[in-house]
Design a protein that fits this description.
The protein has about 550 residues and is α/β, with parallel strands linked by helices. About 45% of the residues lie in helices and about 15% in strands.
């Protein structure tokens, strides 16, 4: 049986969260994030599955992750539409039907978690349970019938956990996080590795806004007045607004489908705020039947989409950010992230996720780390953001070795475009996908590359091709063995590409290596390539 979780007091925050939760101090530099590949860390099997039940105002959801770690992968995800917040504004109570369905949903989720061997199961509740007069009665019923302790989050905690979810899911994000759920809207600031001091919670969730839109009052005017009255001045005109919540993710899916976005993943989808507002207004003009016909919008979600669109339009108008970035991670992931110790929180989520997938499945798990060292000097100048992509690419470099040679390039490209990695945006996905295509000797006139290539500048495309072709050389040269690779060195000059190999490595000037070296030379824009003997040291 899963032990009941012991929660902390109503007014305190978990000590494990530390400064990343409690806010930033002026001028304090962010802690450095290590960028390394560690086969032992990637292959650890000592961590049990972790589950969290999120009792929202509209739905109740269970997510079971492979582990409580920096780059958790969902193993199971299911929700029940209980609509706890329906009618709450009028009665102050959770309706009998919603109460019953929620208890039954948690009982089922507990049974599923037990069957999956989940070692720890946490549960949180938000606006509807927080506001309802019988909210604590629901918590007691869940404890009695399902054996699950539920933590009722305050508005401050809800805002900050949502911001922590964005911090956990992006590379050093800076901007305002908006989390619109079924019952409320929370705003907080993401400041690189911590949450800002200011926060605000509005009664602007999908259900109350839906009711507001059906009433005699002007919903737009009411929303604008609330935003103007309560929003901290520091939230205005920030460069990025991070949109969190099911309604806004659905809006992003529809926009992506209608605009043929090359990366079919909501997380990291980025559009100008003006474009997001224009699309929200388009949705508001559609009749319900037409709304449900749009790609990416289910019939069940279509009901609350006008409310989501209206709130997004008004929030963007008032905050005036430059761009909107949609996040698949929010309160649940922020809660999970807060349970990690400081050392693990500062691991890079993209690198960790890539090595958890790439290293255990590669032919030689020590080879990707060797590739990181071998490609270290490939570019004269490399920013930390560029390095993390190079390290990630090395971790994923053997992803397609089980595929047939004829489809390795295409399949590896498609996997990276769709895999649930975190810590990256769409352009970075495109970079990795193009580079992996090149690593498997893929042709650059392949039609399926067109979408990803549009997201890259010419310089980024060239860098991705060079990295991919360099890895292709490394695998052919060494047979995927670190010992042979360590006895070689690759250098790119202004007009010559040189591969130096030591005599002890016993690698001849083979045709197979030479052909791949020629591909790399072409990518680097140099005319000549050669294989020479590396002078023995000592």
């Amino acid at each position: 049986m899963i032990p009941r979780t012991q929660f902390w007091g109503d007014t305190s925050f978990p000590a494990a969260i530390g400064e990343c939760f409690m806010g930033t101090s002026t001028g304090k530099a962010a802690v450095h994030r290590p960028l390394d590949l560690d086969p032992k860390r990637a292959g650890r099997l000592d961590r049990a599955h972790y589950g969290i039940i999120d009792i929202g105002s509209n739905s109740v959801r269970l997510v079971v992750y492979d582990q409580l770690g920096r780059a958790p992968l969902p193993r199971f995800n299911e929700k029940s539409l209980c609509r706890l917040g329906e009618g709450l504004a009028q009665t102050g109570l959770i309706a009998v039907e919603g109460f019953r369905r929620t208890v039954e949903a948690v009982r089922r989720f507990r049974a599923v978690a037990d069957a999956m061997g989940v070692a720890r199961l946490d549960a949180t509740a938000t606006e509807a349970v927080r506001r309802a007069e019988n909210g604590k009665d629901l918590v007691e019923a869940i404890r009695a019938e399902a054996g699950v302790d539920v933590r009722i989050l305050s508005g401050a905690e809800e805002a900050r956990f949502a911001a922590l979810g964005v911090i956990s899911g992006f590379h050093r994000p800076v901007g305002i996080v908006g989390d619109m759920g079924g019952g409320s809207l929370e705003l907080a600031a993401a400041e690189d590795d911590r949450v800002g001091e200011d926060w605000v919670s509005f009664p602007l969730g999908a259900l109350p806004v839906e009711a507001l839109m059906q009433g005699p009052d002007n919903a737009k005017r009411r929303i604008d007045a609330l935003l103007k009255d309560k929003t901290p001045a520091s939230f205005l005109k920030q460069p990025i607004f991070f949109a969190v919540g099911g309604g806004w993710r659905t809006l992003a899916k529809a926009h992506m489908a209608l605009n043929a976005a090359p990366v079919p993943v909501v997380h990291g989808y980025r559009i100008p705020a003006s474009e997001a507002r224009a699309f929200a207004k388009t949705l508001l003009r559609l009749p319900p039947a037409r709304m449900a016909e749009l790609p990416g919008i289910s019939r069940r979600r279509a009901r609350t989409m006008p409310a989501a669109a209206l709130v997004l339009d008004r929030v963007l108008k008032y905050l005036a950010p430059g761009e909107v970035v949609f996040s698949a991670l929010g309160l649940r992931e922020g809660w999970l992230y807060s349970q990690l110790d400081a050392e693990e929180r500062y691991l890079d989520p993209l690198v960790e996720g890539a090595q958890l997938i790439g290293l255990p499945g590669s032919r030689v798990s020590d080879f990707p780390p060797a590739l990181v060292a071998w490609t270290e000097g490939l570019f004269a100048e490399e920013s930390p953001a560029e390095k993390r992509l190079r390290v990630t690419l090395c971790a994923l470099s053997d992803l397609g070795w089980r595929d047939h040679p004829d489809i390795r390039a295409e399949e590896s490209h498609r996997r990276v475009l769709q895999f649930p990695f975190i810590g990256l945006d769409h352009a970075e996905r495109a970079f990795l996908a193009i580079a992996l295509h090149a690593r498997h000797a893929g042709r650059f006139d392949a039609p399926y590359l067109a979408g990803a290539l549009k997201l890259l500048s010419p310089a980024e495309r060239r860098r991705a091709e060079i990295l991919g072709r360099a890895l292709l050389v490394a695998y052919r040269l060494s047979g995927g063995t670190p010992a042979v690779l360590a006895n070689s060195r690759l250098s790119i000059g202004s007009n010559r590409l040189r591969l130096e190999v030591s005599r002890s490595a016993r690698v001849p000037d083979s045709e197979a290596v030479s052909e791949r070296l020629s591909l790399l030379a072409s990518a680097a824009g140099v005319k000549f390539s050669e294989i020479t003997e590396l002078a023995e040291e000592g």
